[in-house]
What does this fold into?
Amino acid sequence: MELQFKGRDIIFDKELNHLDKLAIDFCAVLNKLKVKYVIISGYEAILFGRNRASEDIDMFIEKLSKEKFGQLWEGLQKEGFWCMNAEMDEAFSLLEDWLAPRFARKGEAYPNMEVKYAQKDLDFYSLSNKVKVILRGSEIYIGPLELNIAFKLRLGTDKDIEDARFLYKLFGEKLQELDKESLLSFVRLMKVEDKAKEYLWTAK
Amino acid sequence: MDRQIELLKFDPEDFENFKRKNFQERLKFIDFLVDYISKTPNKVWSAQQKKIVDSKGKAPA
It folds into this structure.
């Protein structure tokens, strides 16, 4: 695996699958409009090689004015996206109610982008500590891997634990790129010490 | 048919053991995958990943 690290940025190249392409095209609209966002959860593992499919990509964005959301809506329409579960006003209301409008390519239902406002402390931490990934020259921002690993342990399904283990083994053990202190802090914060011991620290 | 089903055996404890064992196997596979990816050029592993991820396909609206 060839990954280049520049500070916190990760630069790499891969054959793009349809989730990668969706993430790149959707994020291009957000980047153009300078909307702060961060991709979180399962796609972070898929981006770096976890072999599994997913129906959606989860994302937090900063809170937007109605006018800014209108620009985003227009930009997404222009780039060939549609909102599956709402028209524009309703989609804005969903966000304001901390719910998620979902955007897919026109004529498709999945994969889709599940977009929510950042609401909780950890969401804002993700936004403030996002990691820039330059994937085949395109910029996308993902949440801190340390947070995602602990969060996945907290979610606790088999799939989530597998994602956590994948990211920990790849970035923590093989690439030595994880901030171990941050990871420990998140593990303690989310009270998943037992799971970390069982599935990460002592995993052979 | 219902009578036939009633005669079948299902041991919940045995099933839970199966689930645990299966999960442990999957975790071992994750370790194998990480090892493989870390030693393999991006172009090679990602072409294989693309086949898996894209095989899920896209659903028409």
Remarks:
- The beta strands of chain A are 3-6, 9-12, 37-40, 56-61, 81-83, 102-105, 108-110, 112-117, 131-135, 138-142.
- Chain A touches chain B at residues 1-2, 12-19, 46, 48-55, 82, 84, 104-111, 158, 161-162, 165-166, 169-170, 173-175, 199, 203-204 (CB under 8 Å).
- Chain A has two domains: 1-143, 144-204.
